[in-house]
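Summary for the steering committee. The consortium agreed at its last meeting that each partner would contribute one worked example illustrating the joint modelling workflow. Our contribution is presented below. We chose a case with several input lines so that the handling of multiple components could be demonstrated. No manual editing was applied between input and output; the record is shown as generated.
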Amino acid sequence: MAERAGLIVGIDLGTTFSLVSVVLPGDPKAVPMVIDNAMGEKLTPSVVALGEDGRLLVGAPAQAMATTHPDRVLRCFKREMGTDKTWTLGGSSFTPQELSAMVIKALVADAEAALGQPVTEAVVTVPAYFAGAQRRATRQAAELAGIPADRIINEPTAAAMAYGLHNLDKEQRAVVLDLGGGTFDVTVLEIIEGVVEVQASAGDARLGGEDFSEALARLLARRIAKEHGRDVTAHPHGWARLLEASERAKRRLSEVEETRLALPRLPLGPHMERDVELVITRADAEACWQPLLARIRDPIWRALRDGGITPSELDEVLLVGGATRMPVFVKEVAALCQRMPSRNLPPDEAVAMGAAVQAALKRGHAAVEDLVVTDVAPFSLGVAVVQAVGRQHLAGFFAPVLERGTVIPASRVKTFHTVNDGQDRLLIQVFEGEHSLVRENRELGQFELLQLDRAPAGQPVQVRFTYDLNGLLEVEMHVPHQQRTEILIIERTPGQLSPEELERARAAMAELKFHPRDALPNATALNRAEALYVELTGTPRSILGEAMAAFRLALEGQVDAEIDQARAMLLHTVAHFS
Amino acid sequence: MTPTEARAVLGVEPDIEPKALRRAYLRRLKGHRPDDDPEAFMRLREAFELLSGSVQGPPGPWVEPTPEVVPPLERAVCVDLDRDLRGRLEVCREALEVGAVGEATEGAITLLALSRHQGFVEPWLPAEVMVLILGLHRAGAVTDAFRVHDALAEWFGATGAMLRCLLGFLAVRWSLLVELRALPADLLPPLRSQLARACLTWDWADGWGDLAELVLTQPQRVLEAGSILFSRAPLLGDLSEPLHTMIDWRYGVGLGDGSEGGSPSEAPEDLGPETRRRFAWILGISLLITLVCSGVGRCLSTRGYPSGEAVLSIRSERWTQAGLSKSDERRVAAEYWKVCLQPEVVGRHYLTCDAAKRGVVAALEGRCDEAREAIGGIDGRDASIGGLVQQLSLVLQLRCPEPTP
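What follows is the complete predicted structure of the assembly.
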């Protein structure tokens, strides 16, 4: 197949960090390349903030404001995808789709700047455990950013592609464990005959590295409360700084057994600041993480069971996602899978690389032509039915039509019957989930099938579910007697936008004032310095203050060389004291 | 799609090995990538699923059961397999109750035939069919009972080897519990409870002492009970060896073998040697399967999963001491049994079972916060544990009522 024109990039839209990656057209080895952002970093924080000047900041400069202005920084919005939650920032309110769109826009701008050509399309990754509404929201975010994303792929499948691309000749069964900032995914796959066959996926959509940091921060808050008698969690500034310090402590504890946190002048309440120093050992941290670690077991068992494989049959256990660096996670996985997990892929970048491989496939890149990947449906999909118990009818039971683990794309038909004599209408309610009662599952939509022939109970109606590669569903109802077919396309769910609303939202996005991309390194440097300034005392503080003043002066002078020099000085000072 | 068409799609011979079939399918994927050509991919997949089904079991799932063997008894509301079969079973039971022996027999045979078509069967099926067979015997329809029996024997032989393994692990206990359920309600209560205890604890040697006194004081009832036990519940009869020893010791007669004249004349419904031979055959199969599968069970339990004993420890006297009513206790135990004692699910529900156990014990010992935390922490989204979660919350309500504000 000939390569199509225009660049298609792969985007890993993460809870805490996002990445953009591309396979360059014509690259004979099809090596996915992760693109640096304006700061020269591969990871762009999925954070949006309102800067001092009233303009919006995305990525590192926004992240740097988290401790100084917690009220003006929005993060972890991926967790609310597909819900109707909104945030208010600088007088406007934002949906999770809009915030994600800003991140996508920033990533695309980075890619265009680095590659020197326009990006026409994107492949965006989602956790395998994302439900239909969350997938649609993700797709909409890309549309809002002005980059169509026809293809949504599962994060662990992407990681498997990045792994499989260069291991196609070795037949093996593997499990990919992806513990990212906010989600945990397990995928069982087999590489056989040059095909990467995903056999099962499971996961926990609300378990990630952020939860480990927060658990640690709560442990520290309890200690602070004991010592100083104040609840730091009640104070936004204090809590933001503690969270940020816990995040750093968590990372350090992956390397060392014990670490010291210094939080000078930590606000504990109105007009109350204390210098707080805490020592935390790895054992303490691991003890407070036990409840979280317990939650990784169930998805692993379920995926292995669904994939029909026992731990001893696994050839490879692959770890993906930044949070898998924690030794305690590795230990837990080693015990569960009865083997040491391997880290053949860069944990932060694997998903983005896989997305780039998928993008290359989509464009028809010659070097990836041999790669075939099949995926499975992560949920069972079905309809609500009435069940006969003796001579009584009980409503609200879930009858799966398309079982989880079905290889997608797939189409399944099931026949249902009317229960009452003379019944002339039928309510088809579509649900996804695993519970036997529909009220425990998520409703996707419903359709009222009217004007059936009045006939004795037991009249058949065929319901066909068609599930596409992106995890989106179409429901078709066929009434055999009447030769009639009705189609229900699940499009609108709570928090979703209609086409007109989408158009309006896109126009509103264009109105928003973003910090110019060229100035981002300056804003980041200044924000990082501000954050550190709060923590320092004495001489270091005045030295940093001087460096900041020098930088502000250089900014006003508008001479690029001077600005660059002053910024380098400032960053050097920041690095020295932090 | 017919099997022939499917083979044409995949380009394979009719007698292809399952592994070769899978490879043939995977090789074809190269030209029918799911991203580029979803329709062709789905066709390929359908062909593969159809053929791989046919390679595994006797008649493939595409053979619709012919209309004439499906009795027009039920009004299926949905085609869910399990519910469909249960519905049919219900109909057979009703038929038996009103004396429609022929209908019940045909229904049971169809039920078995249908479940074979489907390729997956729940363990309750053979046990429930055994109850039906006992019912037929009781209704005097001996020929019909044998027909169903033959169908069941054939069913055991025909269902795939793996299925039998899954089933066999539980089959003995299931069969025993079913036999126990089928015994007359007024069967000597102490004997009944001893049998129940033995079924649950799997200890067939201990606990018969209390019955010794009964053997002395109410010999007639004990003899009668022993005889009923032997004729109606051959599996239990064999295992309740100590009872027979006691009776032998006291009266010097063997209740065991009716054909050799040792059986008292009042033994009401002895089914004769033929029946016993058939039951023994089923018992043999079950035991064989249990032996094969106990290997699986052992390796599971050494990996730290709850073993049978660990499970039963919560079902111990503590429950009754703590004042749960008999029926509550039974319901929780039954749900726990369903979720946590099946070898194919222990891994999956390990956390749930562990939390359930901790929660119930804590609730019974009055540590309500702990109980609430343990039971509240169970993720009830999975369909198969819905019943357990419900029963656990009932226990919590009974033992740890929320303080009213």
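Chain A touches chain B through 51 residues (CB under 8 Å). The longest strand of chain A covers residues 258-269.
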